[in-house]
Amino acid sequence: MYLKDFLLIFRQEYRQVRLIRKIWINDAYKERRMTSRIILNCHSIEKGLSLKKPRPGFGKQKVDNILSLIEEYQRCGYDMNHISIKMAFGVLKEYMIYQQGEGEIDPLQKSEIEKIIPKAYLSNNVKTGGTQRIIKKDIMQNDKKEFEHLITTRHSIRDFLDEEISLEDIKEAVKFALRAPSACNRQPSRVYITDKTQREIMSQYLDGVGGFEASAQNYLIITSDMSAYPLSEKNQWIVSTGIFIGYLSLALHSCGLGACIIQRELYATKVNQSIAKEFNIPEEEQIICVICIGKYPETFNVPISIRYDVEDIIKVLK
Fold first, then answer.
1. pTM of the model
2. Distances (CA, A) of 75 to 30, 31, 80
3. For residues 316 and 240, what is the distance between their CA atoms, to the nearest angstrom?
4. Pick from 17, 180, 200, 225: most CB atoms within 10 A?
5. Helices 60-75 & 30-49 angle (0-180, nearest 10)
6. Does residue 304 sit within a domain?
């Protein structure tokens, strides 16, 4: 049995590596790869600018990368209103202003930045990238008790009210969850919203959860875009989307929606492939989980799910 399991895992890993390699060499995925690389380089500059004392002259190679990527992106005829391009314009503008103030700006690079950024970005005060100044007292006004209440009253719900959910409520929860951190801000998470009329399609994935899925009003298929990460960062998309899912579960609760996360194998199983085909989910997106959601009934039961004591999981290193 051990050998059989090992061979199965090996085959699944081999297939996934081949798929990632395909995504990173096939022109069909070029636009997605480029937007991810633009964001990656932009975030590197943002991190440098957010230091207490940014190093004068830092980031020249990253800026050259951004400029080259934008030029190629434009030559390919891709959408110049994409969020990655807006981010790049904001980052390049702040970088140029900072380095100019430090007397470290490369004249040739400055010329290239000014040539590629639309005049509207150079002349207005709208910030689409770069850094923002935070005042401590503004962010410390949050009530810790309110946060404690939010996280301690969130449970995995398996009993839902038979009442439709507003699409706007789901969108609001997803909007909150988008504040989740991701590796170099590449934001690989995607959300597909299905409803109970599509329960038959979802039945294979939800098989074995106890039948409660029948009372859910919607099923959120959470995927992660593998094209945002090279093979050297394999599985990092799972980490980033896992963080997003944690934020989303809290966001759904804050919007008055109960949720239960259903997890299955993180490979392209026949069930995952079937769901992806039915809902036209691109092959570069890996299904991470499905979340059953619905409105809370007046009373319901949840598992106690006792947690470890904090002392059981902390080790102070000296």
1. 0.93
2. 13, 12, 10
3. 26
4. 225
5. 150
6. no
Are residues 148 and 117 part of one domain?
A: no
Residues 113 and 153 in one domain: no
Task: Round to whole Å and give the CA distance between 287 and 219.
Answer: 13
Across the range 120-147, mean pLDDT stands at: 86
Residue 43: which domain range? 2-123
Q: Please, which residues have CB within 8 angstroms of residue 154's CB and are 6 or more apart in sequence?
A: 249, 250, 253
In this structure, the strands spanning 257-262 and 218-225 are unpaired
252-263 pLDDT, tens per residue?
999 999 999 999
286: amino acid identity, one letter: Q
Asked, for residue 136, whether it belongs to a domain, the answer is no
Torsion of CA 265, 288, 199, 174, to 10 degrees: 160
Compute the residue count for the chain. 318
Could you report the per-residue pLDDT of 179-227, keeping only the tens digit for each?
999 999 999 999 999 988 898 899 889 988 989 999 999 999 999 999 9
CB-based contact 261:245 (threshold 8 Å): yes
Residue 303 included in any domain: no
